[in-house]
Amino acid sequence: TQAHLDAMGEARALNAYVLETPEKALAMADASDARLAKGEGGPLEGLPIGVKDLFCTEGVRSTACSKILGEFAPRYESTVTANLWRAGAVMLGKINCDEFAMGSSNETSAFGPVVSPWRRDGSDAKLVPGGSSGGSAAAVSARIALAATATDTGGSIRQPAAFTGTVGIKPTYGRCSRWGIVAFASSLDQAGPIAKTVEDAAMMLQAMSGPDAKDTTCADIPVPDYRAAVSRGVKGLKIGIPKEYRVDGMPAEIESLWQQGQDWLKAAGAEMVEISLPHTKYALPAYYIVAPAEASSNLARYDGVRYGLRVPGRDIVDMYEKTRAEGFGREVKRRVMIGTYVLSAGYYDAYYLRAQKIRTLIKRDFEEAYSAGVDAILTPATPSAAFGIGEKGSGDPVEMYLNDIFTVTVNMAGLPGISVPAGFDAQGLPLGLQLIGRAFDEETLFATGRVIE
Ligand code: GLN
User: Fold this and answer.
1) Which residues form ligand 1's pocket by a CB distance below 6 Å?
2) What is its quaternary makeup (predicted)?
3) Among 12, 97, 179, 186, which one is least packed by beta carbons within 10 Å?
4) In whole angstroms, what is the distance from residue 437 CA to residue 172 CA?
5) Could you give the residue numbers annotated as active site?
């Protein structure tokens, strides 16, 4: 823990942490030592980790990287972090992310962007670590956290993992409790870890998951032994290769990485089968209706009365307006406006209802592939390697949204997805491959991911 705290002090230029909690970390580490001395201790005893600032931590500032939450320090602990502390993990601090987890580059944070520890060969240009869990990915990659918590609504665990050469898994919807995690789009949000290896990710997810009476969408099913699944191998598995993911303009290096992944799995005894997921092309537009719709509703609670920032006004309505105008950033306001529009009378049927119908079709695509005997699906994690800070999306937000093209389908269908580092582009930047599993079958993803990493 002390070594990590020292390294954090030297890596502040990355802006990965928004709050360092050294006293708490050392107290937790001492308590771990005491337990270990007595021959006790959990599966993550004494392991120092970072916590995405979207998770509520008792008595510790939790802001979702938004100005509107101000100095909000909750009186409760999220179930996922409570589970981690019970397993013996030590909290190093709170980690930077996109504001309310809305973004793909960590540039929408009220605390400023995170700088990736990676650079293109022969260039000093600063790159994004991906988002929204950009701080989690950068911290793990820069070795200032052994692992970190993250959340994924449309790719926010898997895309930053791919950009930084780390492993990120979004489990099946319902595997982790959402209780105490700041809500973005409740039907899509899931917690998961970013870690250095598939085995680390398995150990983290094991501790984070499990039934929780405080979240009715949290599944009441036991969590299997993920760590044991890591070394299970892939012999006899059928891996689906969806033809719709071969999108126009896909860089040759992504295409060849995808082929390389198939070759590795074949060599390890798996069989590749071409499959079709015909509604893939509608996933991104449908996601950018469903997610903002739910966000606009979830974010209605930030009214200047209950949490964080309050900007005084002439009367209560004026206070609401001023607080929200000042407290929310540009991207968050854009989502609230889109969401309110697609839910409003007259537009609901044309946009929101249609997007929900598309969601059902996307889910059915996957169900058909799995009922035909496919065990997991292999795709690229992202359409490119990391890009420069300030390079994308300032003129046209859709340019940024296109980053999520391979990841959003998985959230729309509620399935588990893992991103594993698989190679590098021509300029030395990490690239990731994604594996998508059957509902509640994270084990196959760990076994398959282990062969690729
Ligand atoms: N990039 C996507 C968005 O901005 C996904 C974010 C996420 O998964 N939290 O909505």
Assistant:
1) 101-104, 132, 152-156, 184, 291, 404
2) Heterotrimer of A, B and C subunits.
3) 12
4) 9
5) 52, 132, 156
